[in-house]
Amino acid sequence: MGGLLSRDSSKLSTADERHLARKCKTVATAYSKCHKANPKEPQACNNLQTSLVMCYAADLCKEASEAHQKCYMSVINTGYYQGRRACELEVDGLKKCLSKCK
After folding, report:
1. What single-letter DSSP state applies at residue 12?
2. What is the pTM of this model?
3. pLDDT per position as a tens digit, 36-80
4. Which residues touch 50 (CB under 8 Å, ≥6 apart)?
């Protein structure tokens, strides 16, 4: 996970931590391998990082996750969301929310 999300045990139960680890294992492994394979070009792993953020946020940050999903679906279906062609603001919101889970 590359320190993307560290959790305080008082905020998540052990069962919740295990659930997230299982749920996000594939993308977490891919992200870790990408980072190891591209040490001089971490931006090569941006899409995997976003996928990992989305995986964790789906359970931990419902409101921010819903905002991102709304943007994502609009961009997929129409090419735009509120005049933008990407959902960077929503991804930043997911990251901000997850950082509060530390």
Report:
1. S
2. 0.80
3. 999 999 999 999 999 999 999 999 999 999 999 999 999 999 999
4. 91
